[in-house]
Amino acid sequence: MTFYCIFGTGEKTMNLKNELASYLESTLLTPVARKEAIIELCQEALAYNFVAVCIHPTYIPLAASLLQGSAIKVVTVAGFPLGANDYRVKAKEAALAVKNGAAEIDMVVNLAALKNGEKDIIIREVAAVVACGATIKVIIETGYLTREEVIMACSCIQEGGAHFVKSCTGFGPRGVTLEDILLLRSLLPPTISIKAAAGIKSSSFAAALIEAGATRLGTSAAATIVQK
Q1: Which of 68, 139, 189, 215 gives 166 a disulfide partner, CB atoms 3.0 to 4.6 angstroms apart?
Q2: Which of 73, 90, 137, 195 is catalytic?
Q3: Does residue 120 carry a catalytic annotation?
C-alpha cells in the first residue's frame, strides 16, 4: 500500500486516516491505567474503527463487554514486559485471556534464551502459547538484539507457529525503527505478519512503517494519529 497523500488535505487526507485506522491497535499498557481510561480507549476505538485495543489482562472482560458486537479485537499480553516467565506461565496466561474474551495475544519472547542461543526454548514457548487458539504475536524487543539474534528469533517464531512478529514492548531501550521492519520483512515469509510498536506518534511515521512491511501498528497515540 502506498500513501502518496500523507500531507494532503480534504478528502484524500480523510481517506488516509481511514486507511491508517484499519492498521492501528490502540494501546494502553501503563501499569496504573484506571477503568475510566479503558472505557475511553474502547469508545475511541469504536469511534475511529481501529482494528483492536491492546490492554492488560485484568481489563479483558471490561473491554470485551464494551466492544461486543463490533469487529474490534481485544488484544492482551503474556510474559509482559520482560519475557522472563516460565513458558507454562505464558501458556496459562494466554489460555485464560482467551477464556475471558481476548482474540489475540502479544507474548514477550524469552530474551535470555535468545541471548544464549537456546533455540529449543524459544520454539517450545511459542508453540505452547500458540496452543491457546488465539492469534499470537511474539514480541522480540529489537532494541536489545543484534541482527543475528533477530534472524534466530524469526526462525524460531516461524517454527513455533506464531502468526506475527512484534518489534517492541514500549518498555525496552527504544521503540520501533523503519530498519527493524525492513529487516523483519526480509526475513519472514508472507504468511507471518509484522506488528510495529513503541514510539509511533505521527501519521507520517505510521505510513512509513506500513510501507516498510508492517501490517499492524501498536500505539498509545492512535486517536492523535487519525485526528491530525
Answers
A1: 139
A2: 195
A3: no
SS3 189: coil
* Catalytic residue of the set 106, 119, 180, 228: 106
Domain positions in the chain = 10-227
**DSSP bridge partners of 166:** 139, 195
Query: How do beta strands 193-197 and 104-108 pair?
Result: unpaired
Is residue 195 annotated as a catalytic residue, yes or no? yes
Catalytically annotated residue among 166, 180, 201, 228 = 166
Amino acid identity at 219: T
Question: Are 225 and 19 a contacting pair, CB within 8 Å?
Answer: no
Fold of 10-227: TIM Barrel (3.20.20)
> Grid coordinates in use for 196?
510495529
In tens digits, the chain (228 residues) has pLDDT values of: 554 344 344 444 546 678 999 999 999 999 999 999 999 999 999 999 999 999 999 999 999 999 999 999 999 999 999 999 999 999 999 999 999 999 999 999 999 999 999 999 999 999 999 999 999 999 999 999 999 999 999 999 999 999 999 999 999 999 999 999 999 999 999 999 999 999 999 999 999 999 999 999 999 999 999 987
The position carrying cell 517464531 is 157
CA–CA distances in Å: residue 13 to residues 175, 200, 220: 26, 19, 21
